[in-house]
Amino acid sequence: IFSILKLNSAPATAAAASMCGPDIQTPSAIQICRIMRPDDASVARNNRDRCVATLARVEHTDFLWPMCIGEVAHISAEITYTSKHSVEVQVNVMSENILTGTKKLTNKATLWYVPLSLKNVDKVLEVPPVVYSRQEKEEEGRKRYKTQKLERMETKWRNQDVVQPPNTVSYSQSSLIHLVGPSDCTLHSFVHEGVTMKLTDEVAGIVAARHWKTNLVTASVNAINFHDKIRKGCIKTISGRMAFTSNKSVEIEVLVDANSVADSSQKRYRAASHSSLGNRSETLSQKKKKEREKRLEEGKGRYLQMKAKWQGHM
C-alpha cells in the first residue's frame, strides 16, 4: 500500500521535488525484515544448539525528532563492535512522509547484547568477530566496550553494598505512580473507580509482601472513600503503609494523590485494606514515635471490631 501511494504522488513544485530524494519515475520498494518463528519452520527444522541474544545494557537512547501519525518508520540496525562475549548494536530510526518523500532521523540508540545458550541459560557463548572497514572503528569500539564494562561493574558493586534495612514501617512503605490514560477513563474522561481500586490493592499487596516476603491474599476491604474525581491526563501517586499487624494479618492504609499535568491543584482520596497472610506469625516491633503509637492503637481497635464481625458471620 505504501508503494502505491508513493508511486502515485508527485511533488507540486520543483522545491518539493528536491526534497523527495529518489526520482519519482523510479518505483519505490518497501523492505520488511522479519524473524522466523517456530510456526514458520518445517517438522525437520534444524535442531542445533541455538542461542538467544539477551539485552545487557542500553548505552544511550536519543529522541531527536517526533514521528507523526501516517509517516513510515524505517528502522536499521548495525553491529558496530564485538568482543569475545558481547555485541554492540547501533539502531537508527528514520521517519518518511509518504506524500512528499521527506525523510528525517528521529531516534538513535546504542545497545549491548550477550549471547546465551538455550540449553543452559547460564552459559555465555562466544561471539564471532566482525570485519571492520577501518582500523579506527575497531579502536573506537574497543574504547566504548571498556568504558561500559567498567560502568557495569561499578553498578554491580554498588548494588552488592546495599544493606537491607529491617522490616520497619518506613521500609515496607511503597508507592506507585500511574499516568491516567484514555483506557482508564469513562466516556466523560473521568477515571473508572475500579481502576483505582485495582491499583490500591496492588500497592497494599506490595507493602505486605515487602514486610513478610511470602504469599498473601486480600481478606477484606474496610472502607474506600472517593473524595473527588480524577480526570484523564492526571498523574496518580498511590502510597501504602502499614497501620497495624496482628499475628496473622496486617492492616494497610493507602492514599491516592492526583496531580494534573496542566493544573497545579491536588486531589486526594483514601482507601484502607486489610490483608490476611494465612498462618504466617509476625509481630511488629514497638513504635517509638507517638504518631505511630497512636496509629497502632487505632488499627488495633479496628482489627478487634473486624475480628468480632468475622466470628459473628462464621
Automatic annotation (TrEMBL):
An annotated GO cellular component: cytosol
Alphabetized UniProt keyword annotations: Hydrolase, Serine esterase
Gene Ontology molecular function terms on file: carboxylic ester hydrolase activity; long-chain fatty acyl-CoA hydrolase activity
Xref: InterPro entries: Cytosol_ACT, HOTDOG_ACOT, HotDog_dom_sf, Thioestr_dom
PROSITE patterns attached to this UniProt entry: HOTDOG_ACOT
Domain HotDog ACOT-type, first and last residues per copy: 1-119, 170-283
Keyword Phosphoprotein listed: no
Polar residues composition-biased segments: 273-284
Chain intervals for the UniProt region annotation (Disordered): 267-301
GO biological process: acyl-CoA metabolic process; fatty acid catabolic process
Protein name: HotDog ACOT-type domain-containing protein
